[in-house]
């Protein structure tokens, strides 16, 4: 029977249901962001159609999508579409329907090309096609005049379209790890380009067109095959970051001192010296020049007053200029694996120094002024020739780690005070001082300039010898063959049985009446012992027989004992299939019958 309500109640119920429907519709209309990422989806959920009029941001990254449905492109107000890390091999031409699209992420897919009608997505400001199989860029991509960021890393691109200069609003262009060798001549039209990444490519010459980018601030040109840098690099008046590490550079242009660099990375090259003009980089904050062949630093390096980080490990430096004390903003100084013989006393003026690493050099002492580095936290002096440490190190209240040896277990250890034998000054010493000859562990991490030594294996001295090898020089320890353990156990069983039978015959038989085995033992007791034979037998059985007291008589017996014939030997020779325990039973039974 259906439920009936009074008219007043029924009206209230209808109003409540109507309000509920309006509320649910309102909640659906408010949804602007949908996230289906990391869902292992093989197809796009159709629930998205419910929000086609309001959806502005759609996340479908990290799924297993192989294609996109046509109805997806009915979301005309969609602004952000994230499709990275899927299995898409093509982008439908229907992408042109998304006229409000601003950001399109297609990275980490299997795309080989982009549809040409992507040109109708005129509001696009960011396109990421990194980690795809793109071999060329479509003409429509160069029509996106509002594009500001374009990422083409890890693709198969060998060149850019000739009209690439149409993208005049472009600010970020990344083409790392491609097959690029040349740049289009229209590239200087990118007047607003601020960051350009061309690292890990195959450039041999520095493209001259790069010097005509007036707004360029960051230039990544590492991991190429550059031999030289264009002298007109000073035209990049706004350049602040330059990375040309891992190339084949032998020198830097003198014009580099006219730039406004704050970060300069030139590691892993073949540089021998810095140009004198490098000290004009008064705004430089980070200088990284590890793994080169640099022999000296400019004497007036102290003019680089803004320097915060200075990394010069794996070079051929022998000294540090005294002007380094003028670097009051220097916080990190690494000079590992060089040939530095002394540190200037002016190092104490680097009041901001926090980390000082002098590992694997030729230092014999440290200046007392190092105790003025009140902010020093880490000091690494392992792999040197230090005999002691300055007493002023006790003033470093912020010191957290002092490394003096490669095998040091704790960052800080206890020190002892001593008087220097010559100067009489107080010094510090510990169990790790004086440092031993570090030549055995110097340059444990080989750089590419270290010549590999060929080893002559034929003339190499032999350190492992055996007993049969010819030994020219006298040796104290010679390895002798060890008897087979089964033979030792068999001898032990023989003697144990002989002793057992002899004891039984002594206890149960009349005097002067012995079996063949007892006669043999009585004779052996009267045979004089040959000391040379005992020593030879002991050396052969040192590892197997001395641990068993029953085997000791064997080591003291005569050779005739092993050559004599006994009933046990006859049985063992005639019945090799019997085990030692079975042979013992046969011997005991024969002994009983002899009585």
UniProtKB/TrEMBL annotation:
<keyword id="KW-0677">Repeat</keyword>
<protein>
    <recommendedName>
        <fullName>Disease resistance R13L4/SHOC-2-like LRR domain-containing protein</fullName>
    </recommendedName>
</protein>
<dbReference type="GO" id="GO:0098887">
    <property type="term" value="P:neurotransmitter receptor transport, endosome to postsynaptic membrane"/>
</dbReference>
<dbReference type="GO" id="GO:0005912">
    <property type="term" value="C:adherens junction"/>
</dbReference>
<dbReference type="GO" id="GO:0019901">
    <property type="term" value="F:protein kinase binding"/>
</dbReference>
<feature type="domain" description="Disease resistance R13L4/SHOC-2-like LRR">
    <location>
        <begin position="119"/>
        <end position="221"/>
    </location>
</feature>
<dbReference type="GO" id="GO:0098609">
    <property type="term" value="P:cell-cell adhesion"/>
</dbReference>
<dbReference type="GO" id="GO:0043113">
    <property type="term" value="P:receptor clustering"/>
</dbReference>
<dbReference type="GO" id="GO:0098968">
    <property type="term" value="P:neurotransmitter receptor transport postsynaptic membrane to endosome"/>
</dbReference>
<dbReference type="InterPro" id="IPR050614">
    <property type="entry name" value="Synaptic_Scaffolding_LAP-MAGUK"/>
</dbReference>
<dbReference type="InterPro" id="IPR001611">
    <property type="entry name" value="Leu-rich_rpt"/>
</dbReference>
<dbReference type="GO" id="GO:0016323">
    <property type="term" value="C:basolateral plasma membrane"/>
</dbReference>
<dbReference type="GO" id="GO:0014069">
    <property type="term" value="C:postsynaptic density"/>
</dbReference>
<dbReference type="InterPro" id="IPR032675">
    <property type="entry name" value="LRR_dom_sf"/>
</dbReference>
<dbReference type="Pfam" id="PF23598">
    <property type="entry name" value="LRR_14"/>
</dbReference>
<dbReference type="InterPro" id="IPR003591">
    <property type="entry name" value="Leu-rich_rpt_typical-subtyp"/>
</dbReference>
<dbReference type="GO" id="GO:0045211">
    <property type="term" value="C:postsynaptic membrane"/>
</dbReference>
<keyword id="KW-0433">Leucine-rich repeat</keyword>
<dbReference type="Pfam" id="PF13855">
    <property type="entry name" value="LRR_8"/>
</dbReference>
<dbReference type="InterPro" id="IPR055414">
    <property type="entry name" value="LRR_R13L4/SHOC2-like"/>
</dbReference>
<feature type="domain" description="Disease resistance R13L4/SHOC-2-like LRR">
    <location>
        <begin position="232"/>
        <end position="312"/>
    </location>
</feature>
<dbReference type="GO" id="GO:0045197">
    <property type="term" value="P:establishment or maintenance of epithelial cell apical/basal polarity"/>
</dbReference>
């Amino acid at each position: 029977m259906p439920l009936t309500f009074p008219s007043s109640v029924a009206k209230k119920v209808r109003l409540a249901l109507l309000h509920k429907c309006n509320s649910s519709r309102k909640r659906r209309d408010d949804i602007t962001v949908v996230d289906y990422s990391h869902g292992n989806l093989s197809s796009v959920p159709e629930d998205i159609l419910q929000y086609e009029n309001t959806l502005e941001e759609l996340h479908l990254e990290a799924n297993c999508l192989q294609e996109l449905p046509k109805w997806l492109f009915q979301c005309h107000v969609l602004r952000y579409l994230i499709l990275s890390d899927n299995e898409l091999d093509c982008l439908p031409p229907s992408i042109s329907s998304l006229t409000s699209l601003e950001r399109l992420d297609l990275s980490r897919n299997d795309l080989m090309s982009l549809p040409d009608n992507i040109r109708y997505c005129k509001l696009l400001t960011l396109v990421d096609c990194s980690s795809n199989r793109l071999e060329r860029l479509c003409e429509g991509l160069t029509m996106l005049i509002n594009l500001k960021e374009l990422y083409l890393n890890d693709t198969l691109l060998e060149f850019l379209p000739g009209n690439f200069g149409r993208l005049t609003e472009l600010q970020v262009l990344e083409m790392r790890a491609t097959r690029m060798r040349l740049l289009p001549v229209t590239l200087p039209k990118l007047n607003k380009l601020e960051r350009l990444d061309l690292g890990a490519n195959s450039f041999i010459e520095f493209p001259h067109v790069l010097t005509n980018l007036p707004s360029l601030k960051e230039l990544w040109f590492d991991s190429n095959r550059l031999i030289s840098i264009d002298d007109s690099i000073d035209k990049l008046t706004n350049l602040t970051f330059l990375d040309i590490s891992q190339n084949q550079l032998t020198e830097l242009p003198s014009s580099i001192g006219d730039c406004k660099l704050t970060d300069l990375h030139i590691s892993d090259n073949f540089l021998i010296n810095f140009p004198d003009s490098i000290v004009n980089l008064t705004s430089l904050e980070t200088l990284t020049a590890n793994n080169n062949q640099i022999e000296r630093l400019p004497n007036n390096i102290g003019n680089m007053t803004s320097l915060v980080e200075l990394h010069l490990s794996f070079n051929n430096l022998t000294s540090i200029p005294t002007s380094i004390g003028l670097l009051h903003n220097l916080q990190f100084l690494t000079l590992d694996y060089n040939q530095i013989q002394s540190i200037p006393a002016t190092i104490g003026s680097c009041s901001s120094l926090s980390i000082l690493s002098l590992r694997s050099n030729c230092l014999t002492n440290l200046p007392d002024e190092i105790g003025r580095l009140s902010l020093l936290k880490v000091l690494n002096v392992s792999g040197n020739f230090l005999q002691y440490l300055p007493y002023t190190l006790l003033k470093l209240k912020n010191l957290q780690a002092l490394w003096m040896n490669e095998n040091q277990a704790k960052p800080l250890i206890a020190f002892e005070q001593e008087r220097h034998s010559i100067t009489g000054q107080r010094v510090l010493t510990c169990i790790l001082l004086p440092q031993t000859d570090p030549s055995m562990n110097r340059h444990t991490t080989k750089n590419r300039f270290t010549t590999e030594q060929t080893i002559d294996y034929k003339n190499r001295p032999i350190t492992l010898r055996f007993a049969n090898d010819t030994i020219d020089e006298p040796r104290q320890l010679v390895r002798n063959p060890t008897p087979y353990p089964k033979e030792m156990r068999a001898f032990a069983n023989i003697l144990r049985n002989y002793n057992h039978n002899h004891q039984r015959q002594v206890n149960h038989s009349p005097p002067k009446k012995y079996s063949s085995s007892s006669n043999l033992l009585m004779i052996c007791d009267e045979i004089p012992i040959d000391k040379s034979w005992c020593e030879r037998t002991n050396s052969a059985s040192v590892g197997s027989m001395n641990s068993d007291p029953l085997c000791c008589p064997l080591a003291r017996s005569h050779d005739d004992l092993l050559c004599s014939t006994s009933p046990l030997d006859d049985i063992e020779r005639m019945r090799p299939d019997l085990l030692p325990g079975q042979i013992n039973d046969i011997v005991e039974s024969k002994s009983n019958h002899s009585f």
